[in-house]
Design a protein that fits this description.
45% helix
Length: 344
């Protein structure tokens, strides 16, 4: 059973730096990924224009990719949030045509659609159209930990009838899954889905790599990682360890390039942005909290750290804690203003 490793640093890691990676980092990173013989590199999101400033890997446009060197070896891809397409006034096929040329004219070969459970049933036209354009097509179901085995089994039956998806992913978006959760989700999805399954872990509970071990033992053939775990919230499993772990990958590589890449580009960023499992992220996962809530709280220098656990607990009691809402965060924080003034 050959495990395929996909690195999505430039996509998932971009939640910390607005997808604005330096050209030197991108160049060095791509060379090391190729030298490490990684299977897939996800270069970023592809989406339509955003009102806020976002760096090039938030869009990963055809024109941008034409300007950078993609070393031979890995299969390159991008991710599209299903909401990007579903929220457009035009039909899905027209929206996909705006975003993608035929694969023969692009430097990418893999497109993954990331969809919440309730969005999946609407995604067939975009998935089919990507397939007709010649892409490897992945479907990534987010926040699966919130769904029952019965719901997931029924959904996998629908997806298996579509015949346009090459790999079906399940994502521990909230970082709240343990061994039993991974087993439950895998068994439910594999009841009706017989092709490749993939797993995208998050490290809020410090279980990202342990959960990957479970997923691999169950039969997942695709696994995700990022360099130093750089990713939304507490981050992901560390690609460097996945590449070097003989239980995951038999192919031996020279670790020197990985060490130099991390030293030259990622150590300082990790010190600056602070991804990794911490008490706030751990508490957030226990409360099924969207990781952006915790990320915003930890980045708020005006907030006394001792108040963060209480805010997380309060946020866990809102109607839908797994969906980030900036207004709700502001409202919950404002209730603590008297306590903040007392501390000041």
């Amino acid at each position: 059973m050959t495990i395929k490793i996909l690195d999505c640093t430039l996509r998932d890691g971009g939640y910390y730096n607005h997808w604005d990676f330096t050209p030197d980092l991108v160049s060095d990173y791509l060379k090391v990924m190729a030298d490490s013989k990684i299977d897939f590199v996800e270069l970023g999101f592809r989406q339509l224009k955003n009102d806020k400033y976002l760096g090039p890997h938030a869009y990963t446009t055809f024109k941008y990719l034409e300007r950078i060197n993609l070393p031979k070896g890995p299969t390159y891809g991008v991710m599209v949030n299903a909401k990007t397409v579903l929220s457009e006034d035009t039909n899905q096929e027209e929206c996909i045509d705006k975003l993608f040329k035929h694969s023969s004219g692009e430097k990418i070969d893999l497109v993954r659609i990331a969809a919440h459970f309730e969005e999946v049933k609407f995604c067939l036209p975009m998935l089919q159209h990507l397939k007709t354009k010649g892409y490897l097509v992945g479907l990534n179901i987010m926040q699966v930990s919130l769904r029952s085995a019965e719901e997931l089994e029924k959904l996998s039956g629908l997806i298996s009838s579509w015949d346009c998806i090459d790999v079906l992913y399940f994502a521990d978006s909230l970082g709240s899954m343990g061994k039993d959760d991974v087993e439950r989700v895998y068994q439910a999805l594999s009841k009706n889905w017989s092709k490749d399954l993939g797993f995208h872990s998050h490290n809020n509970l410090g279980k990202a790599r342990a959960n990957i071990t479970v997923a691999k033992a169950l039969g997942c053939l695709w696994i995700d990682g990022t360099i130093t775990g750089m990713g939304r919230g507490a981050g992901n499993a560390e690609t460097e360890f996945l590449l070097l772990d003989p239980d995951i990958r038999k192919l031996r590589i020279n670790s020197t390039g990985l060490v130099e890449l991390i030293h030259d580009h990622f150590d300082d960023m990790k010190m600056l942005y602070g991804w990794g499992n911490t008490i706030p992220y751990f508490l957030g996962a226990l409360n099924n909290l969207h990781p952006t809530y915790v990320q915003e709280l930890c980045a708020d220098n005006s907030l006394e750290p001792s108040l963060i656990p209480k805010i997380i607990k309060d946020l866990g009691g809102i109607l839908n804690p797994a969906s980030f809402d900036e207004n709700i965060l502001r409202r919950v924080k404002s209730k603590l203003e008297p306590e903040r003034k007392m501390i000041d």
